[in-house]
Design brief:
Blueprint: E1 8-12, H1 29-40, E2 45-49, H2 57-67, E3 71-75, H3 81-94, E4 99-103, H4 105-109, H5 111-117, E5 123-125, H6 130-141, E6 152-156, E7 159-162, E8 197-200, E9 203-205, H7 215-218, E10 223-225, H8 228-242, E11 246-249, H9 258-271, E12 276-281, H10 283-288, H11 293-298, E13 301-306, H12 313-318, H13 325-337, E14 341-348, H14 355-368, E15 372-377, H15 387-390, H16 416-436, H17 443-459, H18 463-469
Parallel strand pairs: 1-2, 1-3, 3-4, 4-5, 8-11, 11-12, 12-13, 13-14, 14-15
Antiparallel strand pairs: 5-6, 6-7, 9-10
Helix pairs in contact: 1-6, 2-3, 8-9, 14-16, 17-18
């Protein structure tokens, strides 16, 4: 192929569920890290974010026709894997000799199913992708022996071959994301007009034991971090070189190491970047940092998601959250006291739950009183611990619906439609209560809530239902501006472009 066209095209599937789109467009952080490793190794690389561009599969195929890559690497999570496989199919239609590669949490765990049923997928990268993708390209481009490449799964003579796992990268400071591949004008935080949004990683891994989550399994209960200085230097360069003024941390638990985390806060305060920071962390880390909360705000942290998940101790114990019910309420109150937007989620739809149980969860969510609450359908990934306990109640195997929006479990005393209605009732009741009490909030939070309602009406999967409610809400939102913190993607396991190093989450 000619030198002006890329050898490798890094692709996101054209999948949408109306979830994260409500807040903005989110760059594929994982692919940017993969791209950096491949570029450093001398390979031609381009980034194609079909998801953010809202391209159809036909447009994806035309892109392959125009760019004629030798290799397509596709980022997938469970909800996007069907469309990721379709991307591989149309790539093969354009060029039967192209190498099609999947990566991420779902392919890492479900590689046998994928390779057995989908011949359009040639190969799967397991776990982290930076080193493996380079070694893979070295072997493939030289016609070498793929069995010598650690961390991959492929077919040979009709059999699925899995090579030894590759150890995790120990020194994350040496990674160089390919930020120059990013078309920055495409990535913006919707509630902040004119903003430039980046998704950045400061750590990898999770040591928690949540039974419904993929992350501690994917990272084998490990945790590593970029050094405080290296991380803050990166944010400073992104602000200077690319105008990035809003950053979402892709980390599961960026604050796990208390000493490192305080060093990050101190450096952010010292540099005074003017960058708004949005993140997810653990309830117990917020409680640990009670005395540091003033530093959070001075460092630019405006919005924090914590996974409360349930309002009963029995459910928290089942989910293995290792928390007490009262801890979530305390963390939310602490964030409110320090002028930080709090966001959380409440998971509903377990087999034993009834309408009355869900109604109680909704009422208790009002008591917890976060600024934002999301009522999510319990979604046991097919490789998570919880799956075996609920598999007899799973109503669909359509992975496109495994997005925390569509109920996939049928409780013993409810229909799927009744679960769906209760999830919406949670949003309706919680936000109507918020809007009825709008006058009691500070002016900046009134603007924030109006902006949030407008986003729900215009850009989320709730737009049809929420739009019908607006006339019932005092001070209803018709696009009110706000310069304070704004909504983050609503669920902990739903970063559409995944964690860095994995080709996807």
């Amino acid at each position: 192929m000619s030198r002006h066209t890329p050898e490798i095209l890094l692709v996101t599937p054209p999948y949408h569920a109306g979830v994260v789109e409500s807040a903005g467009s989110w760059l594929p952080c994982g692919l940017v890290y993969i791209g950096g490793a491949l570029k450093q190794a001398g390979y031609g690389v381009a980034l194609y974010d079909a998801m953010t561009r809202f391209h159809t599969l036909d447009e994806v195929q035309r892109t392959f026709r125009d760019q004629r890559p030798d290799v397509v690497m596709v980022s997938c999570i469970t909800a996007t894997v069907v469309d990721g496989i379709e991307v591989c199919r149309v790539a093969k239609e354009e060029n039967p000799g192209i190498l099609t590669v999947l990566g991420g949490s779902h392919p890492t765990f479900m590689y046998e199913e994928i390779l057995r049923e989908h011949p359009e997928v040639d190969l799967i990268i397991l776990d982290e992708g930076e080193e493996t993708s380079v070694k893979l390209m070295d072997a493939w481009s030289a016609g070498g022996d793929l069995s010598r490449v650690a961390g991959i799964v492929y077919r040979e003579a009709g059999l699925v071959v899995k090579t030894p796992r590759r150890p995790f990268i120990t020194n994350l400071d040496r990674l160089e994301p390919a930020w120059d591949l990013v078309p920055w004008k495409e990535y913006s935080y919707r509630p902040k007009p004119g903003s430039t949004l980046a998704v950045v990683s400061s750590s990898r891994g999770c040591k928690e034991h949540c039974s419904f989550c993929s992350q501690r399994l994917f990272w084998n209960e490990s945790w590593r971090a970029v050094s405080a200085g290296r991380f803050v230097n990166q944010l400073e360069r992104m602000r200077r070189d690319h105008g990035v003024d809003v950053v979402m941390l892709a980390d599961e638990i960026p604050s796990l190491d208390a000493v490192r985390w305080e060093k990050i806060l101190d450096l952010l305060i010292e540099r005074d970047l003017g960058t708004a920071i949005l993140l997810e962390t653990r309830v117990d880390d917020i409680l640990r940092d009670e005395k540091l909360m003033p530093k959070y705000r001075r460092a630019g942290i405006e919005h924090i998601y914590v996974g409360v998940e349930a309002t009963s101790q029995k459910a928290l114990d089942l989910f293995k959250k290792d928390l007490k019910v009262e801890d979530g309420k305390r963390a939310i109150d602490l964030m409110a006291a320090h002028d930080i937007v709090s966001e959380t989620s409440f998971v509903m739809g377990m087999p034993h739950e009834t309408k009355e149980d869900m109604a109680l969860t909704i009422e208790l969510a009002k008591y917890y009183n976060p600024d934002m609450a999301f009522f999510l359908a319990i979604t046991p990934w097919p490789y998570a611990d919880l799956y075996k306990d609920v598999k007899d109640h799973i109503a669909t195997t359509d992975y496109r619906k495994y997005n925390l929006v569509e109920p996939i479990i049928k409780p013993e005393t409810m229909t799927i439609d009744e679960v769906r209605q209760q999830l919406f009732n949670g949003f309706r009741d919680f936000y109507m209560n918020k809007m009825k009490n709008l006058h009691t909030m500070p002016a900046w939070k009134q603007d924030f809530m109006k902006t949030l309602m407008h986003l729900f009406m215009t850009h989320s999967y709730l737009r049809d239902q929420m739009g019908a409610l607006m006339d019932q809400m005092p001070g209803h939102a018709q696009g009110a501006p706000g310069s304070r913190p704004h909504p983050v993607a609503p669920q902990p396991d739903w970063h559409p472009h995944g964690n860095p190093g994995a080709v996807s989450k």
